Fold this protein.
Amino acid sequence: MSFINYSSREINCKIVYYGPGLCGKTTNLQYIYKRTNPNQKGKLISLATETERTLFFDFLPLALGDIKGFRIRFHLYTVPGQVFYAASRKLILKGVDGVVFVADSQIERMESNIESFDDLKINLAEQGYELERLPFTIQYNKRDLSNIVPLEEMDRLLNHLEVQWFEAVAITGKGVFETLKSVAKQVLIELKKHY
Amino acid sequence: MTGSDLVMYEEEFLKIEEELQKLRRQANAKVVFLVDKNGQLIASAGETRDIDTTSLASLTAGNIAATGGIARLLGEREFTILFHEGEKDNIHISLIGQRVILVVIFDHRSSLGLVRLRVKKATESLSNIFDDISRKVEKERGEGKLEESIFAEITDEDIDNLFR
């Protein structure tokens, strides 16, 4: 649910990074934060445990620039990936305009990926959304590791909707901005369609 | 998208700002905020210069969302008021309709009782303004006016340019 303010000439949109625990959602946001001009970003807020696991959410406000005199702002959120934080994940999806699913490429994490993907669909449905109708991008993260599943196989397991996907190594920044651009672009195109 | 995007026009925005200023004065508060339930800051009044308003908005919405989750677990529909007491500053958070969150930050110059009273009054006026906005959006959508808005003029090139 975007917020269009004709008074302050701003458009605000919400993008949520979803995925299983330790797949790199927070790392994506940290990299974006690190590589953005100070005048384009707000504070990166992390509600995390002492062991740096996301407890509620991470939040990063980003101003991309202007279109026709309107300031385009994106609010990036991550969900807590660990299974037992299901209730919190549901809350963060409220009012979402676009979703990034970050998948962990390691062989032993495939089951968690699939579980998290199903969880995403269920939680969206509870808020009255369908993944099929939302701006949506998939990121296959941790491609630098050795014990990983081939891309074709990951695509077969997770990308039934045949959406745009990117290979990534979030910790070095590979694929991070490509993923963000892809989903942000879809959000704006969707807005355009809608109005 | 669900079609419930929040749209804000100049006319109503000014009315809202005026209402927030009034509340801030009458409640003797330091700062007053209005936040969308999804974490977007709508308007504010008072000494906001030293406050990261964007973060505050997002955290307040998270707070309300979490409290709402607790309420439903207990069989309540919603807890409509939250109050946090600090050493110097206190924060009073309340829901207006099911849509927006009103945040009042105050110190020893005011009191919880006064804030509650004034918030109650402001809530009514603010609800009316938001009803007006909904009606206006409906009407403009019906007349197809919104389609002539900026979105119609956005080109793919504009979108690409954002990412250069």
